[in-house]
Amino acid sequence: MPTLGNAVVYLLGPYGVGKLTIARELCAETAAILVDNHLINNPILSVIGADGVTALPAQTWDFVGRVREASLQAIEELGAAGRAYVLTNVLDDAPQDRAVFARVELLARRRAALFVPVVLSCDEAENARRVASPERAANHKHTDEASAMERRRTVRPLPVLHANVLKLDTTALSPADSAGTIIRHVAGLR
User: Fold this and answer.
1) Do the beta carbons of residue 130 and residue 31 sit within 8 Å?
2) Is 7-189 in CATH node 3.40.1080.10?
3) Where are the beta strands (DSSP E) in 41-126?
4) Which helix (H) or strand (E) element contains residue 179?
5) Which residue spans within 41-162 are E strands per DSSP?
6) 145, pLDDT greater than 90
7) Where in the chain are the domains?
8) Phi, psi at residue 160, to the nearest 5°?
9) pLDDT tens digits along 112-140
10) What share of the chain is helix, strand, coil (3-state, %, to 5)?
């Protein structure tokens, strides 16, 4: 079984590009621990009855931020030394999202781990098809195709300029192929 070694791999991209699906495959192939953004978001989204379509109360993300910080601290303080983690997120080019990225990068530094941001993308038609999939609703994920495509056209994603970044178009790649590409990229950085 391939390994990621002591690494924090951060899968980033808009709704529906395959972050969770690829992360699951990557973890299955490497025994890394998955910390999906919905693992962090869903305790809050569940209690407010989020349906993936209706706008969320403004303070939702403040509560999510508290869960995220507790999760990252747990990785720092309780996570096994040398263990790889795969995190996922949607980050915009906004101050609060730049701070989230910096916090995950700090997590890697504190663990003396290799930090590998992976920016995922796919073409618009495939992205729209994926966003509307029924599996997303079960996980409190955004499922409104029209608003997701509008967001894709109007909201600038966080520009990731990190030296270790991998940019990966998932349009025609299977989750296994995407995971394999990430594994090879991490190995090449070592």
Assistant:
1) no
2) no
3) 85-89, 114-121
4) helix 175-189
5) 85-89, 114-121
6) no
7) 7-189
8) -110, 110
9) 999 999 999 998 877 777 777 777 666 66
10) 50, 15, 35
